[in-house]
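Z., the sequence and structure:
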Amino acid sequence: MRTYVLAGILVIGATAAWSADPVEGLWKTKPDDNGNFGQVEIAPCGDKLCGVLMKSFDSTGAETESENIGKQIVWDMVANGDGTYSNGKVWAPDRDKTYNAKMALSGETLAVSGCVLGGMICRASEWARMQ
């Protein structure tokens, strides 16, 4: 009986490892209005995807202190199953605005875009996967 239980646990664990969403991982954001950029880790949060700012860098590429480290930058993103993600939110620290957002994964590039005020003001950025 123990053998079957152990085998079941191994299969469940392997299935969970294989089912990781391709967008999960570390991403380098495009420089913001101030020339600063960040390292965002995208991971599951419940049945959706979220991204947390892990590190911050200035325009020269030097790591900097930031009060935003550890804050969610992306939340409530839903995987559509075709490399696109929708119904999420993205917070832009440089403008302190939260956008209704979507993302599209293409290879090692993540296109992140969002709008506020019913689509009146929109912003888009491409993030690069970090190894």
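Residues 2-18 form the longest helix (17 residues). Strands lie at 25-28, 37-45, 48-57, 63-64, 72-79, 84-92, 97-106, 109-116, 121-129.

Let me know what you think.
H.
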